[in-house]
Structure formats: structure tokens, C-alpha cells
Automatic annotation (TrEMBL):
InterPro entries linked: DUF222 (IPR003870), HNH (IPR002711), HNH_nuc (IPR003615)
Similarity comment: family membership: Belongs to the Rv1128c/1148c/1588c/1702c/1945/3466 family.
Gene3D superfamilies, per the entry: 1.10.30.50
Name this protein carries in UniProt: DUF222 domain-containing protein
Ranges where the record places region Disordered: 181-200
One Pfam family, short name: DUF222
Organism: Pseudonocardia charpentierae
Residues covered by the HNH nuclease domain: 277-329
Domain of life: Bacteria
């Protein structure tokens, strides 16, 4: 049987890794030093191949077909990456690979000079991420197209000379020097408008649009949202808008659950809320979102019925699991499943992620050594 290109590539990679291992065991000092450079070169080539594969899968809609709205979330589940590492590759795929327009025409990469040095191994993934961050700033958005293109070329040229942190500082100074006028002043006179519009959508969900010129009203809303919209962890890859939207929904949900009737009257004879004692029991068991690798705290989570209550699922501890909004949506929209086993939640990935569908559990350090 003819060996497929993918199988041949994997075989050659394994052979190359084994050969490098032999050099590490018996190589001279000079050979080991050279080996480090070789390994870095190989890593950058593999990173380029990974980024190209991510871009191709995203263009084909492979992850979306499997229920994922976030490519980085799909990569995290598939490969066991931290969200930050997954996001780094998604950003690179968006910036240094060719794009396809709505008319099917292939367009150049957003960062063509960076794409060239990345393809040539003269820039790492971190360099690509740094250049994208610098050129995605508000100051960079104010540059003319010619200035922006020139800045990108200069940043790409420096990638082989500077570490990512040095490139970040140098690039920020470059953009600041080019953006001499700064942001345009807003000379509009205030109109004293305080309004909020909520529009439901036929498919569910809706839009919220508002404006508060009353400083006290706006500050009260902003204080509540800001207090709950901060990044949950260092690898929280949600945008500011996503964090603020979920923060507002969380605050409203808390009010629905806990506010007395005097503050929030019943609507239609019923107020949606959770059984508090049961929620505390779920929170004590799951210690936040139970999905493996998540770690969002309980205050950011919802309680999910494993067997839906509308299908007869009981509201009991053995049918409940704590999930953040992201993983709650994932359970409802993808082929991931969850069950309780030995008193703890475990998640079954879809076959495209793990053909053997090995159950996964979130690490719970407080149970280490427990009988």
C-alpha cells in the first residue's frame, strides 16, 4: 500500500527526532551548541506548518461544523494547549497566511513582510504575535496606509535582531513617533441623553444599545461591570467586549437569583432562580467550572442539568455540573458530553478530538491523597 504524504512526513519527523536524540547523547560541545540552533530552526518550521494548517481548517469551517465558535477553544481541546498558546497560533494564522475574499479571490496576508520573515525562519510565533499587537493598537490605526505598511516592514526587519519584548517596546515607540497628532479631540457638546434599548432577535438572544450622559448613572453601571469583567486567568482570551457582555449577564443573573421581591417584583407570577443550598453543594464539589483545563471560578458559572430538566432530569447533585458560560454553550452545541462518575464530573470528548473518547476530568489538587 502506498504511504500517504501525511504518514511519510510523520515517519520522517520521528526518525529526525531520534537522530537528534543520538547527537545529544554522544555529541561534542560544538555539536550540542549547533544542535540548539537546529532545534530552534525546526521548531519555527513546524510552527509555520501548524499555523498554515490552522488557517486552512478555519477557512474550511471545520471547527465551526463541530460546534465551536472559537478556534482557539477547539485547538485547546484537541491538542491540550493552554488558551494563550492556542490563541497565539490563531493570531498568526489570521495575520501571516493568505486570505480568501468573499468573491473567492486569494488576498495577500495582512502582514506580508512579517509573513516573509516567519516563513524564512527569521521570526518566531512570539515575534508574529508582538507585531500584530503593535499594529493593532489605536495609535497604529491612526496611521496612513503608507505609514502602517512601512511600520510593518520595519518591525519585520527587526524580528531577527530583537527578542519579542524588545520588539514590543521598539515597535510601540515607532508607532508613537509616527502618530504625532494623537487621537482627535471630541468637541461635541453633551446632549444629556440617558437611554437604553433592548431588542430581541427572532432566533433568540438580542441586542442592547445605550447611552448615559449622567455621570453618576454611568459610573454605577461601569463599576459593577468592571468588577466582574476582569480576565479570569492569564490565558483568558476573551475580548474586552465579550468579558463585559458576560459580566453584565452574570450580574443580572445574580440579581434574579438573590434580590428580594421588594427590589425585583415577580414577572408573570414566577422569578427564575436557582436552589441556593444546592448551588453551594455543586460549587463545593466542582470548585468552579468543571470542564478540564478551564478554572473559571464559581461566581462566573452556571449550573447545568446533565439530563435536561425538561426531559425529566432531576434537580439533584448527581445530575448537576458547574460550567462557565463558554463551556455551558459548548455542551449544548457540540458533541462533548458530561456525566457524573464516582461522585465527580467527567467529560467525554467527541471522536474527532479523541478517537478513543477517553474521559477527561479537571485537575482538583485538593483531592490529591484523599482516600
Amino acid at each position: 500500500m502506498t504511504e500517504s504524504p501525511s504518514a511519510a512526513a510523520q515517519r520522517l519527523l520521528v526518525q529526525a527526532a531520534e537522530a537528534l536524540g543520538e547527537v545529544m547523547e554522544s555529541g561534542s560541545d560544538v555539536e550540542l551548541v549547533a544542535l540548539l540552533s537546529t532545534c530552534e530552526t525546526v521548531v519555527r518550521r513546524l510552527d509555520r506548518a501548524t499555523v498554515d494548517a490552522v488557517a486552512a481548517l478555519e477557512r474550511r469551517g471545520v471547527f465551526a461544523e463541530r460546534g465551536y465558535t472559537s478556534v482557539s477553544a477547539a485547538l485547546s481541546d484537541l491538542l491540550g494547549w493552554e488558551r494563550l498558546e492556542a490563541r497565539r497560533r490563531v493570531v498568526a494564522a489570521e495575520q501571516v497566511t493568505p486570505r480568501v475574499g468573499l468573491d473567492g479571490v486569494v488576498l495577500p496576508a495582512r502582514l506580508p513582510a512579517t509573513a516573509a520573515v516567519f516563513a524564512g525562519g527569521r521570526a518566531s510565533l512570539r515575534h508574529v504575535e508582538t507585531i500584530a499587537r503593535v499594529l493593532g493598537s489605536d495609535a497604529a490605526a491612526r496611521l496612513s496606509p503608507q505609514q502602517w505598511t512601512g511600520a510593518e516592514a520595519q518591525l519585520a526587519a527587526k524580528a531577527g535582531l530583537y527578542t519579542p519584548s524588545e520588539l514590543q517596546a521598539w515597535g510601540a515607540a515607532l508607532v508613537e513617533a509616527l502618530d504625532q497628532d494623537g487621537a482627535e479631540p471630541d468637541d461635541r457638546s453633551p446632549s444629556g441623553v440617558n437611554e437604553l434599548h433592548l431588542t430581541g432577535l427572532p432566533s433568540g438572544g438580542g441586542r442592547i444599545k445605550g447611552r448615559f450622559d449622567d455621570a453618576a448613572m454611568f459610573d454605577a453601571i461601569a463599576a459593577v461591570v468592571d468588577a466582574t469583567a476582569r480576565p479570569l486567568t492569564g490565558d483568558d482570551d476573551r475580548t474586552v467586549g465579550q468579558r463585559q457582555a458576560e459580566a453584565l449577564a452574570d450580574v443580572c443573573g445574580y440579581v434574579l437569583d438573590h434580590a428580594p421581591t421588594a427590589v425585583l417584583p415577580e414577572s408573570g407570577g414566577r422569578r427564575p432562580h436557582l436552589t441556593d443550598g444546592l448551588r453551594r453543594a455543586v460549587a463545593a464539589r466542582d470548585r468552579g467550572c468543571a470542564h478540564p483545563g478551564c478554572g473559571r471560578p464559581g461566581s462566573w458559572c452556571e449550573v447545568h442539568h446533565i439530563v435536561p430538566w425538561e426531559h425529566g432530569g432531576p434537580t439533584r447533585l448527581d445530575n448537576l455540573v458547574m460550567l462557565c458560560r463558554v463551556h455551558h454553550r459548548q455542551i449544548h452545541s457540540t458533541d462533548w458530553t458530561v456525566r457524573i462518575r464516582d461522585g465527580l464530573p467527567e467529560f467525554i470528548p467527541p471522536k474527532w478530538i479523541d478517537p478513543e473518547q477517553h474521559p477527561r476530568r479537571r485537575a482538583l489538587p485538593h483531592l490529591v491523597g484523599a482516600a
